[in-house]
Amino acid sequence: DVVMTQSPLSLPVTPGQPASISCRSSQSLVHSDGNTYLNWFHQGPGQSPRRLIYMVSNRDSGVPDRFSASGSGTDFSLKISRVEAEDVGVYYCMQHTHWPHTFGPGTKLEIK
Amino acid sequence: EVHLVQFGGGLVQPGGSLRLSCAASGFNFNMYWMNWVRQAPGKGLEWVANIHPDGTETIYVDSVKGRFTVSRDNAKKSVDLQMNSLSAEDTGIYYCARVYREVDISDWGQGALVTVSS
Questions:
Q1: Please, which pLDDT band fits residue B1 given cuts at 50, 70 and 90?
Q2: How far apart are CA B112 and CA A30, in angstroms?
Q3: pLDDT, tens digit (0-9, with 9 covering 90-100), for B80-98
Q4: How high is the pLDDT of residue B27?
Q5: How many CB pairs lie under 8 A apart between chains A and B?
Q6: In terms of DSSP H, where are the helices of B1-118?
Q7: Which residues of A touch B62 (CB under 8 A)?
Q8: Please, which residues have CB within 8 angstroms of residue A74's CB and are 6 or more apart in sequence?
Q9: Do B45 and A55 touch (CB under 8 A)?
Q10: DSSP of A2-29
Q11: Strand pairing of B10-12 and B112-116?
Q12: What residues of chain A, 70 to 99, have a C-beta less than 8 Å from chain B?
């Protein structure tokens, strides 16, 4: 199985400041169709996961443009330009290329 | 508006069985793969299973293969997860989802808590 790792695992951030999360996969996420299927999810306290990003850098509907993401191959990142209080929770990267689809361990973002 | 409403869940003894259901609305249900994802208490997410739009194809993570069965009723717009031979390691919140990797589709149910304990 593809192992997803994230850093940091804990991320205290002051509102208005930027935040960044890294994600690495144990093997390339480039699919045979040429696309790279890497997602980012946010799970607020007591909530179902919500996808923010698909295919490395595409924002899902309704996701604020303060969220951006990039990467290729095995190295990816999610950036929040200015953290707001509603961004608290756990962020997961997830590879959607290989079966079984696998998630990273999560990065817990908290407000300072 | 898309809705995935889950039913089922509860407390079951080790070795027992439980069935989860998910009722869909707001989209053409019979055109989409459906998924099940679970989350152990205080832990991360694990993708469990997928089912083809017509129900003829399913795929499972190794940890549930042979014990869990996903099925769907397109007339009722519902997808079920039958869970047998449950163990404590199966305890967690189970989410019904519709998540597509190449387009802007990601919908999740509210989750159903399954507790396996004697």
A1: very high
A2: 33
A3: 999 999 999 999 999 999 9
A4: 96
A5: 53
A6: none
A7: 100
A8: A24, A25, A26, A27, A28, A29
A9: no
A10: --EEEE-SEEEE-TTS-EEEEEEESS--
A11: parallel
A12: 92, 94, 96-97, 99
